[in-house]
Amino acid sequence: MKKFLKINILVVLSLFFVACEKKDELKVEENIVKSVFAINPILKDENQNRVFNASASSNHQIKLSFKVQGNLNYFKTQIGDEVKEGELIASLDSKPYELKVSQIKYALSEANASLQNTKSTYERTKKLYINQNASVSDIDNARAMFNASSAKVENISKELEYASLQLSYTKLYAPISGYIAAKYVNENENIAVGTPIVLISDKLVDEVRVQVPDVFINKIKKDSSVKVVFSSIDSKPFEAKISEISKYASQNEKTYLVVVKLDNSTKLIKAGMSADVYFDLEDKTKSSLYLVPANSVLNDKNGYFVYVLNKQDDKYFIKRKDVKVANLLSKGFEITDGLNENDLVLKAGMSEVFENMQVIIANEKELGN
Is 291 exposed, middle or buried (0-12, 13-18, 19+ CB in 10 A)? Predict the structure, then answer.
């Protein structure tokens, strides 16, 4: 009997200590605060895909060609050479044109001699007619010969003027000061009328040309400000304005040519240099769009919502926040209303929390809070 009583006392004591231990464990569990991960909503970049590649071009680019044909016997300039206005760029063999001028000059001298003879004849006949020593037909014939000689001299003079002009066209001069941007032919080639010879660009390149897709062209306005970045130039973006917008699409693609004028240029910018043009196409009438992970957005009978963390006296508590959802993208849901960039949105574990529950943020340092 005493042995049985001793055993019961031991069992009771064991149960007492176990109960006390469990009670202490419950107290510890009650004091544990759940650790969660949070994020700030990402302001959606409304200007994404609004950066277009462009190439620098001169405001004045002139492609020179001859107005006459011939053999190119002088063409010494090279790409990149600096030229001054009025400087000789190239010339054709001028001998055929010089010969033509010489022949017309000889014909003109003969025509002038003939004109002098017919003029003298006309003057004599006119005096004889006045003295009644010449008939009406004589004076008419003399006048006709004089008029014909005058017309011949006038025509040959025009031929000489044209031939001299043709001779002057055998020399090609720089119409502006600038650089040789391109060469299209070589010395000693036979050149046809209108064949491009050389491209001259301004010394200062202050434009870029960019092809803009048709879906954006109506959002671009003339004189709007843009930024231009040259990857080959280590400098801040260049401020610029839209100076021209084409009204016709290119033949091969649905793009429109847009010319952008730099506010301030530099000699470092060369014609043909690659650049990126940043257009501000944001619709100012639209409210800001935010992106949050898809698993952060929940919904119930009252609509879509997220859990955010409210800070109270250095403590964070779970709070429901109703939101309006737009499109589901690869990066998450677009939120059109209900959030701002300072909100702390619960990233995961929504099923393990409830409103007003106290939590701690495991990634608080990453958030900068």
Answer: buried
Name the token pair of 113: 């001699």
- Per the CB < 8 A criterion, the answer to whether 156 and 108 are in contact is yes
* 237 has a pLDDT exceeding 70: yes
Backbone angles phi, psi at 155, to 5 degrees: -65, -45
Q: Are 226 and 278 within 8 A, CB to CB?
A: yes
Q: What gap in Å lies between CA 12 and CA 236, rounded to an integer?
A: 82
Q: How many CB atoms lie within 10 A of CB 153?
A: 19
Q: Which residues have C-beta within 8 Å of that of residue 291, sequence separation ≥ 6?
A: 41, 42, 44, 329, 331, 332, 333, 334, 335
CA distance readout (Å), 251 to 36, 88, 262: 56, 37, 27
Tell me the C-alpha to C-alpha distance, in Å, between residue 311 and each of 285, 302, 319, 327, 356.
32, 25, 10, 30, 11
- CA distances in angstroms from 308 to 245, 280, 318, 344, 359, listed in the order given: 47, 32, 6, 5, 11
| pLDDT score recorded for residue 111 | 95
Residues 6+ apart with CB under 8 A from 155: none
Q: Rounded to whole angstroms, how far apart are CA atoms 323 and 305?
A: 5
326, 318, 321, 324: which is closest to 358 by C-alpha?
Answer: 318
Q: What is the structure's pLDDT at 29?
A: 43
pTM of this prediction? 0.53
Mean pLDDT in residue range 136-154: 94
Concatenating the DSSP letter of every residue in 232-265 gives TS-SPPEEEEEEEEEEEE-SSSSEEEEEEEESS-
Rg (CA), the chain: 46
Q: CB-hemisphere CA count at 13 Å for 115?
A: 16
CB 225 within 8 A of CB 262: no
Query: C-alpha angle 197/203/207, rounded to 5°?
Result: 95
Structure tokens, 207: 């434009």
Residue 276 Cα distances to 45, 85, 162, 192, 226, angstroms: 17, 32, 50, 39, 10
What is the CB neighbour count within 10 angstroms for residue 246? 15
Side-chain-facing half-sphere of 192: CA atoms under 13 Å: 1
* Angle, helices 136-168/95-130, rounded to nearest 10 degrees: 160
